[in-house]
Amino acid sequence: MHSFYIEPPVDGFAALPAEEAKHASKVLRLRPGDEICAMDGAGRRWRGEIAATDGGGVTARLLEELPSNEAQARVTVYEGLPKADKLDFIAQKLTELGAARLVPVRMARCVVKLDAKDGAKRRERLEKIAREATKQCGRGLPLEISAPLDWSAALSQMQSHDALLIPWEDARGTRVKDVCAALPEARDIGIVIGPEGGMSPQEVAAMRAVGGRTVTLGPRILRTETAAVVSAALAMQLWGDI
Fold first, then answer.
1. Angle at 140 between CA 126 and CA 4, to 5 degrees
2. pLDDT tens per residue across span 182-233
3. Integer Cα distance of 127 and 143 in angstroms
4. pLDDT band at 112, cuts 50/70/90?
5. In sequence order, what are the residues at sequence separation of 6 or more whose Cβ sits closer than 8 angstroms to the Cβ of residue 34?
6. pLDDT-based confidence at 115, cuts 50/70/90?
7. 97, 99, 134, 237: which is deepest, by most CB within 10 A?
8. Can you give the pLDDT at residue 113?
9. DSSP type of residue 157
10. pLDDT at 14
11. Which domains does the chain have, with CATH numbers?
């Protein structure tokens, strides 16, 4: 069943935005009676069907509202700004896993330096990727994408989580499941991933000072994008719904 974003419903019907309507009618060649999943982008989903395709526009009939499939735990990933298109991959996979938020962070060892203009462009691109991934995986809510934060601003936000995980190549002994065993009732999980050059000892010490817990992801060093996906998957399996 194909998923589409819709305009605000009126009396059980909703129009598809122009780009969605074009994709439904011209690319997928859907016709009246074909079943779809309709999404308002704010968390609500409906089982619906195409009601009309007139003049390039598409109208959907909403048959029944579907239950929420958002995760029980809210997972936020703080990602040290990586090179190339790695953030694109991370945003897509975090959406599929059910994470709530992605926060790009300027860390000491980041090679990438984004000014406000470049940061806004990157955020717009990531939001588009997250919206498309939301449709693909059938979520009701897209991944929330934050504007890139400086280290001090990110550290201030990290303090608010029930549990703050710091996957670190120098960590020994403590694993994600050990933190879950100590904090089984946590429902707001923060995860901090370093950039290609890793996190500095000073950054790790600062996070520990606000309650962060360093954890190991095993005896092999993972790439930053791999670490982000693996850490989120572990958190979703232990605290969430995987």
1. 80
2. 999 999 999 999 999 999 999 999 999 999 999 999 999 999 999 999 999 9
3. 8
4. confident
5. 49, 50
6. confident
7. 99
8. 83
9. H
10. 97
11. 2-66 (2.40.240.20), 74-238 (3.40.1280.10)
Give helix 86-97 / helix 116-137 axis angle, nearest 10°: 40
C-beta separation of 143 from 97 below 8 A: no
For the chain, give the mean pLDDT.
Answer: 95
Q: Which helix (H) or strand (E) holds 203?
A: helix 201-209
Q: How many CB atoms neighbour CB 32 within 10 A?
A: 13
Strand pairing partners for 79?
A: 104, 193
Residue 97's DSSP bridge partners are none
Alpha-carbon distance of 228 to 124, in angstroms, equals 20
What values do phi and psi take at 219, rounded to 5?
A: -80, 0
Kindly tell me the sign of the dihedral angle through the C-alpha atoms of 18, 24, 28, 32: negative
Residue 120 phi, psi (nearest 5): -65, -40
Count the neighbouring beta carbons within 10 Å of the beta carbon of residue 84: 10
The set of residues, in sequence order, having a beta carbon less than 8 Å from that of 16 and lying 6+ positions away, is 4, 5, 6, 7, 24, 57, 58, 59, 60
What is the pTM for the complete model shown?
A: 0.93
Question: In a 3-state reduction of DSSP, which class is residue 205?
Answer: helix
